[in-house]
Amino acid sequence: MKSQTVKRTVLSALLMSAAGFSGTSSAHEALGSLANNASAIDVYHTSCFSWAADQDFDGDGIIDEYSGPAARFVGRINKTAGNNSVKLSIAKIGVAGSGASVSDSSNNGNPSAFVARSNGNGDYVFAVSHTNANTNSYLAEIHCERSTTPAGGAAANGFGAHTGTGVGGNPPVADFTQIINQ
Ligand SMILES: [Ca+2]
Ligand SMILES: [Ca+2]
Fold it and tell me: Are strands 136-145 and 72-81 parallel, antiparallel or unpaired?
């Protein structure tokens, strides 16, 4: 069980300018904005890990994160304001050629499709960027997940059984750490 005290933990180390913590696997979301600069980028780090047992964080009887290793890391992006297209890029640290990306250009409330990297447990980075000098706001959603649904069938990227996602150990202290905020 993740405590409210932990939820309020603020990571303020040099490279940890912000941290997010949702407490539920359905809300691993990074809410941010990109400055009026074509090269602006936000970069985040998180990791996929194996819980020793299934986790029901909110006690509602529904498992929020399952035990067992992740099959993949998935993410999608929803641009919420601005005229630009925003791009979400994900990659597994230490795995060459492991990058993938997806973009969203509309402010219609709908996120992009999920993009995935099937690189198992370990450290991942995800970044949000744009290519024009506009101010953009976004909501990036990320998950570590198994390749199956809770019922055991195959699941599409972004709709598998969620597994351990976070930084700072097991249990984690935050869903992710923001490394660069521009
Ligand atoms: Ca639950
Ligand atoms: Ca930012």
Answer: antiparallel
Is the pLDDT reported for residue 7 higher than 90?
Answer: no
Ligand 1 center from residue 161 Cα (angstroms): 13
Cα–ligand 1 centroid distance for 97 (angstroms):
35
Is residue 2, in this structure, part of any structural domain at all? no
CB of 118 within 8 A of CB of 72? yes
CATH of the domain at 50: 2.60.120.380
Predicted structure pTM score: 0.84
- Neighbour-count burial for 73-99, b at 16+ CB within 10 Å, e otherwise: bbbbbbbbebebbbbbbbbbeeeeeee
Cα–Cα distance, 118 to 120 (Å, whole number): 6
